[in-house]
Amino acid sequence: MSVSLVSVLFVAAGLIALGAFICAWKRQLTAAIGALPVMFAGAGLAFAGVARFSAAASGPPLIGQEMAVLLAIVALAAVALGVGLAGRESSR
Fold it and tell me: In the chain, where does DSSP find H-type helix?
């Protein structure tokens, strides 16, 4: 069984939709912020998949993987900031 770009994009779209659903479903801010890495993982998977399967890439071939790592770092920073802000609000 081989993996194609379409299957990678379907999985990425599923991860983004799952993250959006978790953000909308959770009532607590800290629980909703926990879904941000899931959405960023979907976007990172899409970037990495396009970079992997793109035959005529105009840029360097590793730009998708670099964007995926950058999105993972941004997701971690967003969660840390959100948890810090939520913890600060609940202590008042």
Answer: 5-25, 29-33, 36-53, 63-90
